């Protein structure tokens, strides 16, 4: 009994050391000036930890980038639960102009699992942003753009598929997608700081992304921040993203049928080159060395990461303002690894 107690205490101490290491890495990134805003939250059965450094506080709102995608997917699956669409429905059933050639074979499932053959971004993406194009122009471009491969034959990340999925919800419900998400996803989960687009905020009240130049279409521009891009335009805090992840760890009836929520975090791409859930990355190796294979979550290009590991019942959110292309190896991955080590 004494030996068991000693080992339990030793294990707890080692795990606490890993959490302390994660916090130290976060503080160091801010202290050396690498990140301007940085905040994290860890939830485990033993308790919850919230850290913030630089200009951030625990309640700072960040531009999430692609963490938006599973939120958009949840909105689509609400209509699946209602019987207003099926994952095997062809996209052209709801967006008739999306037709011709192999487009006719693309289903809603393909859009949500990155198997459609659509590109991540349109060739004219930068031109569209420079002229402050509305989302309907991105949809029109997606209906014309060539496919990269036959639908369902491989996995290739595609933000434009997520765009079309949100467009289907708008056409079925005749409701702006940002309003639909607020009413049926964010409000039921008490995600009071979350919005698709700015949600009435001023940009100055949010974390300012570390981007160079004064382009009026970059991540800090009024145009981009309030476009409400369903593939990357959500704003939120660490506490709200935690509420979202926790819902999928322990689903109930507030948003989806529990079996639907569980399906979203289960690999849908058996036999293909990359596992993926419905809107969620489902692959522990994509998040940390010691995450279990069933870990689900997402990365964001603005310098964000979130994941939940069903094996350890751990949820982790790290939001920064330094682009992931520059911060993944030096900030995001090391802190994520330390948290996963603490949970293992």
Question: What do these coordinates show?
Answer:
The strands form two sheets. The protein has a six-stranded antiparallel beta sheet with strand order 2-1-9-8-7-6, sandwiched between helices. Strands 3-5-4 form a three-stranded antiparallel beta sheet. The chain has eleven helices and nine strands. The two termini are about 25 Å apart. With about 350 residues, the chain is an alpha+beta fold. α1 packs antiparallel against α11 and α2 (about 70-80) packs across α7. The chain has a single domain (about 15-344), classed as Beta-lactamase, CATH 3.40.710.10.
List its traits.
9 strands, Beta-lactamase, single chain, alpha+beta, three-stranded antiparallel sheet, six-stranded antiparallel sheet, 344 residues, globular
Break the fold down into its secondary structure elements and pairings:
Layout: H1 2-31, E1 37-44, E2 47-54, E3 62-63, H2 68-82, H3 108-112, H4 125-130, H5 135-144, H6 159-173, H7 177-186, E4 195-196, H8 222-227, E5 234-236, H9 238-249, H10 258-264, E6 281-282, E7 296-300, E8 304-309, E9 314-320, H11 324-343
Antiparallel strand pairs: 1-2, 1-9, 3-5, 4-5, 6-7, 7-8, 8-9
